[in-house]
Hints:
By secondary structure, chain A is an alpha/beta fold. Helix content of chain A is about 35%, strand content about 20%.
Amino acid sequence: MVLYLIGIGLNDKKDISVKGLETVKSCDYVYLEYYTSVIVSTKEELETFYNKKIIVADRNLVESKAEETILAQAKKQKVAFLVVGDVFSATTHIDLFLRAKKKGIEVKYIPNASIMSVVGIVGLELYKYGKATSIPYPTGSFMSETAYDVIKQNKSQGLHTLCLLDIKVSEPTPENLRKGINKPEPPKFMTIKEALKILLTIENKRGENIVDANTIVIGVARLGADDFEIKSGPAFRLEKADFGEPLHSLIIPGNMHFIEQEAIEQWKIKTPQRKKNIENDE
Amino acid sequence: MVLYLIGIGLNDKKDISVKGLETVKSCDYVYLEYYTSVIVSTKEELETFYNKKIIVADRNLVESKAEETILAQAKKQKVAFLVVGDVFSATTHIDLFLRAKKKGIEVKYIPNASIMSVVGIVGLELYKYGKATSIPYPTGSFMSETAYDVIKQNKSQGLHTLCLLDIKVSEPTPENLRKGINKPEPPKFMTIKEALKILLTIENKRGENIVDANTIVIGVARLGADDFEIKSGPAFRLEKADFGEPLHSLIIPGNMHFIEQEAIEQWKIKTPQRKKNIENDE
């Protein structure tokens, strides 16, 4: 009958829209996609809030078993598919959308906040961001340099870069999957510290002065939540800063207008007391 | 005491988040910023829904009179400042945020959907968009070519471009303002038709084959609403298509992956019956 694709926002259960909440309450089945992002409310809290049983949808269910579950049900009944943040940031949801439409299922979309627009709070103009990129965990000895290249390209045009940091939420490792073992690993969220370490390692190797120890960067954590954290400063300082709980993202500014500079000034990381000595050390 | 900056979403009164609605209901003053975007609910509908009186904030109030209104009140009481879509897409709200913080006012941000992420529904990957741009109405004989240049730059890297189309919501003309006449003009929203006409005029002048009559473009209208419209096809066809009510935006794709191509295929504009003849005409 209908497949509702509903963004539930970035932080907790109350970030869903009024329309989204009314819709979830009216549905026969409620799926929660929980592998491309996370929020602080637990599944149980959401179930109480919606007064609905929630089926957690992992990547395997959405990508390989949607036919016999979500789509089969949506043929005859009302199915809600909840996504943390907004719906169409991840390709896999476009795919679900297309598959549902091909089956003649009506698809409705209820949007919500996404990291792509919420970073606006930092004060760098949204339309001055170039291509976004992501920084994945190195796999074995392989460290992707894509992010470094994207930052380089954006900087050459004076544009800012938003780097989304890797998330591994309860997925089996590729090694285990190959062995047929579907045992999920504990969730893992890349920190700003880890991301900067990766970028500085690549800088060290390539030496193109794209992101070095003194480059001004901006770390953001838990945007959209009350306890959000934003810090700006040279990479070597932010690499030592603690941003607390996930999710973290990293912004590499391009050329800044003076209003943008004034805006990021407010997030300037506090220098330690023994400033002089510490700077001499480095 | 507190200034709440609250995104109310893109379409109607029920797009506000549950948290946003609870917050508005708890505030002493409720401002609605209504000059950088619009939604279909009227002020009166919003007032009934919130059970609050709404003060409409025009550009003049926010940019020149915030001190003695919004900020003075937020010093002592709870003030909600509602923005259609998300809050920080427009520079002017960053400015309000900074001014409030400087005065020692606590500022809280409740995010919502923005056109910058909702375009994801089209099926072009969000992270493959380059810099966004806007297409303004020509003023007198001056037609800005910025959008054309941004599209050119993005295309050279294979990236998509989101073009936001001009909005004039109840603002006085610059001429009248200079004369001290604060009489608002009727609202005006650029259509996809008008935007394409501008781009094709620039193409005609510069001849760099950035957006010509046969370039595949995507028009989107009322994204986030039930009656949203998306059409893809050559510019000369979309220039003749009717997208209905505002808001309209225009997307110029860069290089497309086959999944992106498949996705935009579903929005392909229907060719008129007398296809052959019409094509011969052109």
